[in-house]
Amino acid sequence: MSGAANQYKFVLTARWIPEKSDAGQQFMSMRYWVTANLGVGFDYRPLIDQMRFNATFRLVSEDPKGWRPAVLLGTSFDDFTSDGVQTESRSYFATFSKAMPHLKFFGIIPSPYAGAVWITNLDEVRPLVGINLAHKEASLMVQYSGTDTHLSLSRKINDNLSLSAIYWGMKYPGGGLRYRF
What we know:
The protein is mainly beta. It contains 1 helix and 12 strands; from the N terminus they run E-H-E-E-E-E-E-E-E-E-E-E-E. It has one helix at residues 22-25, and strands at 10-16, 26-33, 38-45, 50-60, 70-82, 85-97, 109-119, 124-134, 138-144, 149-156, 161-168, 172-180. Strands 1-2-3-4-5-6-7-8-9-10-11-12 form a 12-stranded antiparallel beta barrel. A hairpin with a 4-residue loop joins strand 2 (26-33) and strand 3. The longest helix has 4 residues, at 22-25. The chain is globular and about 45 Å long. The two termini are 14 Å apart.
């Protein structure tokens, strides 16, 4: 989710990473934007037949012409690794993000973010940092989830659909899609 509102009410995402555990191999999410700042929905993991609630709230919208970042709060249920053991857990996050069009180079706009996530089953807080390098039709996102670095290269097919190549934890290749309507 960006720090700026858009006109879409529904967002469907899916991810396939064949070398992850059953909980993380296949993932789908459907989110409905109740308002421009509140999205609610469900995450579904078909291999373990698990459906969980997710939500994101944009507490502060970024100022596209100034330096004010967006502040996002949210919750989801995801798979996490601690000491080599994978567990599924509810998590709560807060992030600050900011698109920086004034730093545009070769048509690419950098959008860094930083924040933290609290993983309830591990009773652990982890840092979240990353940057999205967005071009008109493609973007590269580099993320650090507190334990691993992830890459995703996305290509916008049209205004509604984008496809992604994912390199999860710098060791597991996969694919993803996002459809907005």
